[in-house]
Amino acid sequence: MNILSFTNDNEVLKLANDTDAGLTAYVFTRDLARAEHFSAKLRFGEIQINGVKYGIDLPHGGIRQSGLGCDCSYLALHDYLATKRVSRALAN
After folding, report:
1. Residue 72, by phi and psi: left (phi above 0), alpha (psi -120 to 50) or beta?
2. Which of 39, 59, 60, 78 qualifies as a FRET site for 26, CA 20 to 30 Å off?
3. How many domains does the chain have?
4. Quick check: is 34 in a domain?
C-alpha cells in the first residue's frame, strides 16, 4: 500500500497510473465531482471511493499485471462459457 503526498490532481493521477499493477485504487474525498473525475482517469480494475465495498454480486477484476477479466458476479460467467452458432438449411 502506498500513501503519497502530491501538489495537484494531475500529478497524483500520473503517479498512480504509472505502475504495472492495476487491481484496486482508493480515493478518499468529500467532493463528488472530484471522486467522479478520479474514477474516470484512474486505470484500475476497481476504484473504491471513501472505503471498501465488496460483495459476491460485485465484479472483481484487475488490469495489467493484476490479471485479466473479472471474477464474482454474473460477469465471471463469460470466462466459463463459449458461444456456439448452429446453422441449418431446412429441406423443402
Report:
1. left
2. 78
3. 1
4. yes
Task: For Cα atoms 35, 36, 38, give the angle at the middle one, nearest 5 degrees.
Answer: 65
Separation between Cα atoms, residue 57 and residue 15, nearest integer Å = 31
Asked if residue 91 is part of any domain, the answer here is no
Q: Rounded to an integer, what distance in angstroms lies between the CA atom of residue 43 and that of residue 74? A: 22
Residue 62 sits in a domain whose CATH number is 3.40.309.10
Cell representation of residue 39: 474514477
pLDDT digits (tens, 9 = 90+) for 63-92: 665 566 556 556 666 666 777 777 777 886
Instruction: For residues 4-10, give the mean pLDDT.
Output: 83
Specify whether the CB–CB gap between 79 and 69 falls below 8 A: yes
pTM of the full structure: 0.59
Residue 60 lies in a domain: yes
| Helix/strand/coil percent split, the chain, to 5 | 30, 15, 55
Q: Is residue 4 part of a domain?
A: no
